[in-house]
Amino acid sequence: MDDKENKLICLAQNQVIETERLRLRPVTLKDTADMFEYASDEETVAFVFPRQETIEDTRKSIVLYFMEAPLGKYGIELKDTRKMIGTIDIRMSKNHPKGEIGYASNKAYWGNGYVPEAARALIKIGFEEAGLVRIEAYHTEENRKSGRVMEKIGMKREGLLRNHAEVKGKIMNSILYAITKEEYKS
Fold first, then answer.
1. Contact in structure between 135 and 100 (CB atoms under 8 Å)
2. Structure pTM?
3. Cα dihedral 38→40→44→47 (10° resolution)
4. Domain that holds residue 120
């Protein structure tokens, strides 16, 4: 079995992940209303993806991104209310033992530590089960809140990537953060 197959098996074995306050699980069409609640808010999605203007936009997004290839993609659900408040994913490289984390969450839940809690769970699986040696994340220079999440999960800023991203027709600089397996262990 090759490295790619091992990573896919690891993700398949971890389709539902529980943390103290959260349940990370596959996104389904039942999540359409919860996702539309934040995906239709311009402030929430300013640096992530185009604002979804209709419930149908959200339904299509769920099917085309989350359901078509679900491994490594999770809804962030609060255990106590069963409300989905965001999404998080880990994309593992096919040719190198590294991964990349991305996330979006409902602004009504910002500041509660939910995204860092979810990200720590994915980092643990990446390093302890999938054999990754590095996990990275990017945020646009203007999206400092996302950078703060990266710092909270132990990532270190590695550099500025000039003209790296195009967000809604605007060319932006990105900041690269990463954590290595050695840093995670210590």
1. yes
2. 0.93
3. 130
4. 3-185
